[in-house]
Design goal:
Elements (H helix, E strand, L loop, with lengths): L16 E8 L2 H10 L6 E8 L17 E7 L5 H4 L2 H16 L5 E4 L3 E4 L2 E12 L5 E10 L26 H22 L2 H9 L7 E5 L4 E9 L5 E5 L4 E4 L3 E4 H7 L2
Parallel strand pairs: 1-2
Antiparallel strand pairs: 2-3, 3-7, 4-5, 5-6, 6-7, 8-9, 8-12, 9-10, 10-11
This protein binds biotin.
The site of biotin (BTN) has 20 residues, from helix 1, strand 3, strand 6 and strand 7.
Length: 264
């Protein structure tokens, strides 16, 4: 790990404490180490590139220089299940941040926490929690990766980058982090005051595939049905082809055209 020269350090609201790094394995591991040492809520570990970026469900995360990679330490006073709503808070704040730094462009959300630009994935969010010995929440690590300049060219991935979708090339990862930090703050304070409702509604207004046929891949089965709703815990409600409803807390969603393109 090396420490950067920081040519363009983002200006974050004072509740954040920025830890700006150059190359790391994963900002999740750096943030975990700091959280274990007692780092306060709002500590934000930002890296220019990652050599071992991690995604959801054990996947890797393509992390070359030019994109945005950070992990925010949170210590919410909420039960672990409720705190998981913060990943939706972050997805909506990231969608709003992209809207702030770019010309009008279609931002949608794919369950659980992907942000899409013109239907392709531009950002992903990884939430990891650690419980205290008494079972209460000790800290949450909120990891965000955004393809600002680059995206993986794997044909099965349907990924994109902000620059590829027409966001001006002078919009940098630091600009996006600044915008995110403000939107996240305002969304979190609304979440504390008013609960999950406002963020759930904002997410649903731009939800990809809502009301449509989707495929959900679980570890041991693949389900097909209609994406009916997002429940008050952030679970996806799927109406199976036979009419039965399933409540899904973890899995990989494929929108119909993606499922067809994957060819399996
Ligand atoms: C996903 O699979 O969609 C979640 C991707 C999360 C990637 C971010 S990049 C910053 C942080 N560090 C990591 O290793 N992963 C998260």
């Amino acid at each position: 790990m090396t420490v950067p020269e920081q040519p363009e350090a983002p200006r974050l609201p004072p509740v954040y404490r920025l830890v700006a790094l150059d190359t790391v394995g994963s900002t999740m591991e750096e943030a975990r180490r700091l959280a274990e040492e007692g780092a306060e809520e709002g500590t934000l570990v930002w890296a220019q590139e990652q050599t071992g970026g991690r995604g959801r469900l054990g996947k890797g995360w393509h992390s070359p220089r030019g994109n945005l990679y950070f992990t925010l330490i949170l210590r919410p006073e909420a039960p672990i299940a409720e705190a998981a709503q913060l990943s939706f808070v972050a997805a909506v704040a990231m969608g709003e941040a992209i809207g702030t730094v770019s010309p009008p462009i279609e931002v949608t959300y794919k369950w659980p926490n992907d942000v899409l630009l013109q239907g392709s994935k531009v950002a992903g969010i990884l939430l990891e929690s650690r419980a205290a010995p008494d079972g209460t929440l000790d800290y949450l690590l909120l990891g965000c990766g955004v393809n600002v300049a680059h995206f993986p060219q794997d044909l099965n991935l349907t990924a994109t980058s902000m620059h590829y979708e027409g966001v001006p090339r002078d919009v940098s990862a630091a600009d996006l982090l600044e915008a995110f930090s403000r939107h996240f703050l305002s969304r979190v304070s609304r979440w504390v005051d008013d609960g999950f409702g406002p963020v759930r509604r904002a997410w649903l207004r731009h939800a990809a595939g809502l009301g449509e046929a989707i495929e959900v891949r679980l570890p041991r089965e693949t389900l097909t049905g209609r994406f009916k709703d997002l429940d008050s815990d952030g679970c996806l409600l799927l109406e199976l082809d036979g009419g039965e409803e399933r409540r899904i807390s973890s899995g990989e969603v494929y929108l119909t055209e993606q499922a067809n393109a994957a060819g399996d």
